[in-house]
Design goal:
By secondary structure, the protein is mainly beta. The chain contains one helix and 21 strands. A hairpin with a 5-residue loop joins β15 and β16.
Length: 340
Amino acid sequence: MKNCLRFLLCAAVFSFQTLISHASHIVGGEMSYECLGNNDYTLTLKIYRDCFNGLAAYDDPAYVFIFDANGTNVQTLSIPFPGSDTLPNNANDPCLIVPPGICVEEAVYTFNVNLPPLEGGYSLVYVRCCRNNSITNIVDPMNTGATYLAVIPDSALAECNSSPAFNNFPPTVICVNQPLSFDHSATDADGDSLVYELCAPFVGASSLDPQPLPGTPPPPPPYGFVTFLSPYSATDPLGGNPPMAIDPTTGLLTATPTTVGQFVVGVCVTEYRNGVLLSEHKRDFQFNVTTCQPSVIASTPNIVNNCSSSTITFENNSFGGTIYHWDFGIDGIDSDTSNE
């Protein structure tokens, strides 16, 4: 009896550890598609993983569920793992040193599928759990999954439509108290009109069932949203002063975070053709806000001249530079400069 209890306890601990290992690695993702003609589409699923804290491997294969407008699972795609690449830690400033412990990997799954015209179109869905437990701005991230959704509209609205695709991935690191300005624009192959906004990411699978499998598909759309912790929200996911904002026309993303932490952010781009909404493309990702050390500083002490001497000594307290240029600030001349 004791051996049996010991075995059950060990099994429970192992099961719990397995859940934890699958509950702390997703830091972002998105899904888009391109129409090739003849009802053929190339699906692209991008998944971003925390390779410093995350323990769970990428899905191999990843399952993408295709639903019709009635919510019926009409097809399930099985996409092999393509390998992953580690993204460079870019703080958006070459003069700042990123601290250790931040690592983001990207895996890009692609698959060609034939989808004949269908009334109401198709919804393509990838569902997974879970997010980093260290996330600052949402409730219970360890048990909050993510859903990445792409919608192919009814052919009566747009025949052979391609979704928008974001041009760049945000920096893996944002430095606290430093302004961020990032081009979050997208390109639409069809030339449709694009509108940008901050939005709430979808929830997904739970730690009890982290990866829905063929035969047991997830529920069809619509999906719920992550719950933000006050004072954060979908439109103010980082706090800070000024708070995060995105230009609805250009996609320029700006922020000045004032709190160190990890923050879930959603950016949506909607595409319109002749004033008619076709689809919404959502990127769900995690911003790592940290304290960055400057690698280059230009500095001299404050000098107070009491007019007792016409000679003033400036002490160079700068570091990290190899080329110097001093300008003493007299407008209209260049004889008040030095490269000493």
